[in-house]
Amino acid sequence: MELTGLSFEGKKLIVGVGSALVDILVRESDGFIEKIGGEKGAMVLVEPGFIEKVLAQVTGDPIIVPGGSACNTMIGIGKLGGASRFIGKCGKDDMGKMVVTDLEKNGVEPMIFTSPLPTGRVLSIVTPDAQRTMFTFLGAASETTPQEIPEKCFENTAIVHIEGYLLHNRELMLTALNRAKKAHARVSLDLASFTIVKESREFLKEIVSSYVDILIANEDEARVFTGQADELRAVNALSPMAPLVVLKIGKRGSYISHNGQTMRILPMGNGEATDTTGAGDLWASGFLFGLVNGYSLEKSGELGSACGYEVCQNVGAYIIEEGWKRIRQLL
Questions:
Q1: Under DSSP, is residue 204 helix (H, G, I), strand (E, B) or coil?
Q2: 8-state DSSP, 202
Q3: pLDDT of 270
Q4: For the residues of 291-317, what is the DSSP string, one character each?
């Protein structure tokens, strides 16, 4: 299936807008999540004191790496050799410096604003089934204002990729959407979390119908958004909402729907997942990179699937160099 009706006018730059965060990853049991009052697989906003309290109870040493959904996606595009830029806000602290350094190291242009607040962080608890449950303190990321995003940051941009977590700052999201459209960029929206969708369902429907060209969801997000538990019914419900729709179904692959046609993308690799943190973010890296470089929808989906598979083979939202070598063979 070829992409039609969504021209990028020869542009290849992809700009991500979202929260600049640091991931703190720990391995624990399902019982541990119940003990601290969490809902498995969810993302909830918390104060930093909650994260410190939980960290005092974990059994192993945490792994600390740069994170944030759109940030992860832009890093993946940079690693693939694509042009990417990330817009976000950090604190003037060591964690903020870590985020900027990591972006630059991986070929991403950082457009990072700073705040007196500490850099945001996510406590990601990984259970034995590789599922992650996230507790997020937005910190400096919560202070990004519409006035800080100049129109020039979207000039000559093919796709503006926005994470659904930005729904916590609706004014900022609307500003980013309007400026992306004014710059004649295509808009990609990742629904991010079923808890986010549940809280903002009606507002989300409004912005998808008005602004979004590429809608990306996993099965839990799609179920909450459409009310359909069956994956085929869910993708059929999503399809009229945007010109290009993606439904990710974990280790079973994904669906891509465009112009009334739906194709199934089979999963890549056959290893068991170690940690699903960043799987959807890196899937988006491969898919969006493929689109702006003229790949077919099937090839773009396969590239997304390969990136999503490789990131699940280690703890954290990053792919080791051997994994990137395997992915580049697809190019």
A1: helix
A2: H
A3: 75
A4: HHTT--HHHHHHHHHHHHHHHTTSSSS
Nearest Cα neighbor of 256 from 243, 266, 246 is: 246
With tokens 């003990």, the residue in question is 35
Please give the full DSSP string across 10-56, using - where no structure is assigned: T--EEEEES--EEEEEEE--HHHHHHTT--TT-EEE--HHHHHHHHT
Tell me the average confidence (pLDDT) per consecutive run of 10 residues in the chain, 331 residues long.
Answer: 86 96 92 91 90 92 90 96 96 95 95 94 92 92 89 94 92 95 96 91 95 97 96 95 96 94 89 84 97 96 96 87 91 78
Q: Which structural domains are found in the chain, ordered by start? A: 13-323 (3.40.1190.20)
Residue with tokens 């990004």: 144
Q: Which amino acid is at 214?
A: I
DSSP secondary structure of 140-161 = GGGG--GGGS-GGGGTTEEEEE
Rg of the chain, C-alpha, whole Å: 18
DSSP label at 251?
A: G
Q: Which pLDDT score, from 0 to 100, does residue 27 have?
A: 92
pLDDT score for 278: 86
